[in-house]
Design goal:
- This protein is mainly α.
- The protein has one domain (6-248).
- Helices cover 74% and strands 0% of the residues.
- It has helices at 11-15, 33-59, 65-84, 89-114, 118-138, 146-172, 184-213, 220-248.
- Helix 2 crosses helix 4 (89-114), helix 3 runs antiparallel to helix 4 (89-114) and helix 7 (184-213) packs antiparallel against helix 8.
- 38% of the residues are buried.
- Mean pLDDT is 87; it is low at 17-25.
- Keywords: Membrane, Transmembrane, Transmembrane helix.
- It holds the Pfam family BaxI_1.
- The chain crosses the membrane at residues 41-58, 64-84, 91-111, 117-139, 151-172, 184-203, 219-237.
């Protein structure tokens, strides 16, 4: 079982591991840590740029609903296409970042209007979590074993199934999902989801490290950066949800 990110559990990603196993290797055309880091920062900048667009539109009194939902849909499509066509990642990854940014900006503006100051708290919590997980992984405090991977993936799939089933039921009935509202149970669920999202970061780090060790092709830097961005976006959204629940209890 592999990472929750669709980028890291596809046949295409695994097959790419042997692309550069030839005797003569051009290391300028293989995946590197610096290259992946640089592309991750670039995607982050593009995502923030997209978020600023819808954020400013809302603050100016416009309704960017089409951009918000359109960004979410296009971002999802980019993720699905890249998962099957990793070689297209140099084009899909920047597009994903921009369109996902449109979605994030709209969602963030909505939460900020309801709970002033929540966005900066969620951003701070996301990056603090990221760097803590990175440090724990770098210094091997947390090691990604097959058992660790299996537990995290199983928990992630359970969360996805729960969210999907709850959403489908709520469409046709008056059912109120347990994770809605600001009850202690709902807050506990959000904390659990955040923990699982954070654990997915370890799987992402591990897959990127393996990709570099296996001398995967250069375009996999975009692939790895895009996958990491997917997890960070998920983590950020979950922090927004948790903080909003806590604030609504005050």
């Amino acid at each position: 079982m592999e990472s929750r990110n669709p980028f890291f559990n596809t046949k295409s990603y695994k097959e790419s591991e042997t692309v550069h196993d030839a005797v003569l290797i051009d290391y300028n055309q293989t995946m590197t840590l610096n290259g992946t880091i640089n592309k991750s920062f670039l995607l982050l900048v593009l995502l923030v740029g997209g978020a600023v667009i819808t954020w400013m539109m809302i603050n100016a009194g416009y309704n960017p609903l089409i951009l918000v939902f359109g960004g979410a849909i296009v971002g999802l499509i980019a993720v699905l296409v890249a998962s099957f066509k990793p070689a297209w990642s140099p084009f899909l990854a920047p597009g994903y970042a921009v369109f996902e940014g449109l979605f994030i900006g709209g969602v963030s503006a909505y939460f900020e209007a309801a709970y002033p100051g929540i966005v900066i708290q969620a951003v701070g919590a996301t990056f603090i979590t990221f760097f803590i997980c990175l440090a724990l992984y770098k210094y091997q405090v947390v090691k990604v074993t097959e058992k660790f991977r299996s537990v995290v993936v199983a928990a992630t799939l359970a969360i996805a199934a729960y969210y999907l089933i709850s959403w489908l039921i709520s469409l046709f009935t008056n059912f109120q999902p347990v994770h809605h509202g600001h009850s202690l149970m709902s807050i506990g669920i959000s904390v659990f989801v955040i923990v699982i999202a954070a654990l997915n970061l370890f799987l992402d780090f591990d897959q990127i490290e393996k990709g570099i060790a296996n001398r995967m092709p250069k375009y996999m830097e975009w692939f790895g950066a895009m996958g990491l961005m997917v997890t960070l976006v998920w983590l950020y959204i979950e922090f927004l949800r948790l903080l909003s629940k806590i604030s609504s209890r005050d």
